[in-house]
Amino acid sequence: MxxxxxxxxxxxxxxxNEKSFKKIFIVCGKKSFKNSGAKKLINKLIKxxxxxxxxxxxxxPDFMELEKIIKLINKFKPDLIIAIGGGSAIDYAKxxxxxxxxxxxxxxxxNSTFKIQKSNRKLIAIPTTAxxxxxxxxxxxxxxxxxxxxxxxxxxxxxxxxxxxxxxxxGSKSLKSSSGFDAIAQSLESLISKKSNAKSVEFAKKSLKxxxxxxxxxxxxxxxxxxxxxxxxxxxxxxxxxISKTTVPHAVSYPFTSNYGISHGHAVSLTxxxxxxxxxxxxxxxxxxxxxxxxxxxxxxxxxxxxxxxFCDYIIRLKRKAKLENNFNKLGININKEINKITSNVNxxxxxxxxxxxxxxxxxxxxxxxxxx
Length: 373
What we know:
Layout: H1 9-16, E1 23-29, H2 32-35, H3 38-45, E2 50-56, H4 63-76, E3 80-85, H5 87-98, H6 105-110, E4 122-127, E5 139-144, E6 147-152, E7 160-161, H7 173-192, H8 198-220, H9 224-244, H10 248-260, H11 264-269, H12 272-281, H13 292-302, H14 308-321, H15 335-343, H16 348-351, H17 360-367
Helix pairs in contact: 4-5, 7-8, 7-9, 8-9, 12-14
């Protein structure tokens, strides 16, 4: 596989030099904006424009913080919005760019009665993590009262996305580990999602070839080459799930994030191989319009696994090498006591994408490893 070598800084400079952009609103992470080098880059490229910077505080996209962003955008009236950060910062900007504020907005999001309005301004997304692929997806996540909801519409997708590898090199190892696993999980889930098609399969396969070859290198010895590769691999994973959507491991991950503060990719990893094993051993019950065994054959080939048990061992070893803690007790979670709290808050929308139908009892048994295969 050829190493990728690209950088969109010149393109960003050209965009910021456009005379039509006089007022720029930036959504970013409080720490990542400086630590990634994004602040220095923006200060260098922006000359005469009026700029407002909103630095998010919440670790995941929270409705109360979203309200602040929408109100500030309405007051500032920017020509251009730049989302520069991880998935949360980008999701905030994607929603705020197309949804108008109202006193009932929280309920509208809960009930999916919100109105999407096309914006005259442009939205640029610049990821500072290699993981979410949010820069190329037409949906965004928002938590209302600690419950996760999705806002989906074609107009939510950013107008422009730029990949700048140097912005992801300096991230913490734990951030790289979590976000990188998220990209890998997205592609693997995409391959078995009921909504997948030939195009999403190609995106997922290409993403996995790149990410699996660069993930641990990127964690242990980040450089220009593996940073570029991981950023592009995550981007391809985003393209894959924009078509197929994710499945059960992602659906189950959100309560771990909202209730216990576990970062998104890490939360996805906690149950990942358990659900893949369930899907494999119940493949005869698949309601997908494709041969699920053939999709698993693709997965086994890409991970150099002989069978489902070999694949699960591969994932467990990968998590161990990436230092993604897999023990609930060590994470401060009494899983036997908390299981109903976790599964009652699972995103059922993502359960429908899973090739095998699941109910709450199945979720409990799989997470608690009460099912024998």
